[in-house]
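Q: Sequence in, structure out?
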Amino acid sequence: MESHGDPTSEERLASPKERRLRDLIARWPSLVLDVDKPAAAVVTEVGVSGGSADVVVVDAEGEITIVECKLVKNKELRRKVIGQLFEYGDALWKLDVEDFERILAAGGTASVEPRMDSARWREAKFRSTVSRNLAGGAFRLIIAVDDITEKLERTVAFINCHTPPELRFLALELPHAGEAGIQRPEAVFYGENGRRIGPRPPHWIRRGKSFLEGIPGEDARQVAEDLLRWAESEDLGVIFKRRKSDGIETGAIFTPDGERLFRIKEQRSVRVSFEALRERDWDEERIDQLLQKLAKSDARFQIDRKRTEERPEAPLESLAQENKREAFLESMEWVLETLAG
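A: Exactly. Output:
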């Protein structure tokens, strides 16, 4: 089965740490398998319709596990990877055993050669189980990460609790697995126990209610609330601070690495923070790219060239139209992707 020109696993796993995460699983497939189930086959870069799965493992009893690897700071962790896993499951669903074998044979590398304990191995029974699992879409879908987040755990638990028992959707935490020189890491699974998950109200609502009330103008207030909700959906930090000099309060949005992305100012404006970008060695070409993306929002961003540091700023009301607000947030998502890369 061809991948229809989709990027290879190696291309998608641009980070060396993500490649190490994948290679560790390929080296120790027991990390993703149930206890006492040896691997029959372990293949990386398995090309299927829709892309290339990082690792596919088939255990001795014919259970099929599909693994995608991502670092916790990668913004695709929830939005895209979850969809990718289900898409890969769909691509394998209802295949016959021969086609499945051909897909595995065309994969990138097989870190573990197919092997069985001859005393326990029953090939006919194994192939029958694989065939049944392919026909019924009975797979284990696993997101492997270096560090679990509360939101990922909740999302995985929610999906796993609302899918049929033959399809298991889990997150696997492998602490320090992206670091060079790591040996076999300890593995912790998440998502199987939904009972431990409680309600999670938006964190910023308790702290930000008074902040929103202090923003004059209904349009400006609504834009500020939408930006805060977006920050929450991206697992970004939000810190509210009131200046002692003039009593003006701001809501600062931070990246997962603790770098300020932009500020929402109580006096009805939003200001992008270039300081953190320059500290990350962004050159003028990259800065200009961001300015061009901000310009697409048509949100009247102004730069005070007299200041030592450029700080594009625009009135909150200029983002009141949904298309302009989406264009602004797309530029911020581009920054997050660039920083994560």
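The longest strand covers residues 39-48.
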